[in-house]
Amino acid sequence: MKRVVMKRTRGFLQVAGVVLIGSVVLGSCVRHEGAGEPDIPEEETVLTGESGSVRIVVEEPGTKADGIVYERDEKPVKRWAFFIFEHASGRLAYRGELADNGVVTKRIRTGEYDLEVIANYPESGQEAVNVRSIYSRADFDALKISLGQNSLGGFAMAGRIPLTVVRTEDEDVLEADVRLKRLVSKVMVTGITRRFTNAALGAKPMTLKGVYLTNVYTEARYASDYEVGELGTSRSLWYNALGWHKDGSAPAMAGVDDLVGDRTLNRSLAQGETADLDLALYFFPNPMLPSTDVPSSEWASTARCTRLVVWVQVEGRDYYYPATLPKEDAYAPIVRNSVFAVHCTLTALGSSDEDDWIPSAMDVRFVPVLKKEGEWDEVTPVTEVS
């Protein structure tokens, strides 16, 4: 277990890339009276002897992208909660809630722990997170959130690190820096190029109607991404199944539209031209592998791959270009908080079905945003992926 670095500090800790609030707002740590549940100390001063002070610092997420005002749209942490679990037993040692970015210091008995942090979770409704109801790792692992609870300026986030608490005295503290990750993934659509190999078809007027995702899984865990085989097959858990034009959008999830697509582009696209876009699409990671998923004209009770769809009109008829999002990229598979840039080149007329594809009708490259020191760097410019 990695030991957290011990530092002697006074006042507020200043960390590069971290915004600290002017005053620390301590979460109310409550004592649970239920039989067999751990006691949650209300004050750090009740602990004496073999214990240490831990300063929890929440760092801003690392993903950035062109076209999105990062400070306004992707970075904000409006509220966050922390949970410290005993590593061996999963019992809760501490929990608390804070407003905005900040720090909190707690004194804990020496030993091995797991620190979990979540941010921007719902405070009301069926998916509200009641921090005081969490008493064990099992309770925390059961927490889920729907895609509709995410939005620009309020993405749900989570982060975890192991803690080895050693004895500290006086003003010595163990520094625990937690890097938050958004639960959503992102595809940046940088542009669409029309380069038909058939000159007669290339001469026909074309309108780029929209770009969007189909077969979007609408549920995520705070604790971890889903693995293959864990996805529920209930129709209510999938958004835009097989596409909008097959009535694949559940009305109750209409607020998700802005996250997963733009169907209002309506841009003319002549032969040889490129529609330069800067379109960010957000979705929960879907671990389904292409080898286990095939196109189908009807929804079936099975998990499906998430697809990017380019929608065009030629002579009043709709054509679609679906492409399955990459799953097994050796360098950077799509996981929470990951970013892929994509440029699409249309080479022939597409399919009449949003979930079926015409071989060789579209060349598409999903380019993972390169990592730098473990974090995501700037999105690759369109000139490098076209």
In percent terms, what proportion of residues is strand? Answer: 35-45%
- Tell me which CATH architecture of the largest domain applies here: Sandwich
Q: What is the CA-based Rg, rounded?
A: 24 Å
Can you summarize the main beta sheet?
Answer: 5 strands, antiparallel
CATH topology of the largest domain: Immunoglobulin-like
> How many helix segments?
4
How far apart, in Å, are the first and last alpha carbons? 44 Å
Mean pLDDT across residues: 77
Catalogue the unreliable spans: 1-48, 62-66, 370-386
Output the structural class: mainly beta
Query: H/E element string?
Result: EEHEEEEHEEEEEHEEEEHEEEEEEEEE
Overall geometry: elongated
- Could you estimate the helical fraction of the residues in percent? under 10%
Q: Look at the structure and give the CATH class of the largest domain.
A: Mainly Beta
Domain count:
2
What does this structure look like?
The structure is a single chain. The chain is mainly beta and 386 residues long. The chain has two domains: 6-182, Immunoglobulin-like (Sandwich), CATH 2.60.40.2580; 185-384, Sandwich (Immunoglobulin-like). It is 4% helix and 37% strand. The chain is built from four helices and 24 strands. The strands form seven sheets. A five-stranded antiparallel sheet has the order 4-3-6-8-10, with no helix packed on it. Strands 12, 16, 17, 19 and 20 form a five-stranded antiparallel sheet that branches. A four-stranded mixed sheet has the order 1-9-2-5, with no helix packed on it. Residues 1-48, 62-66 and 370-386 have low confidence and may be disordered.
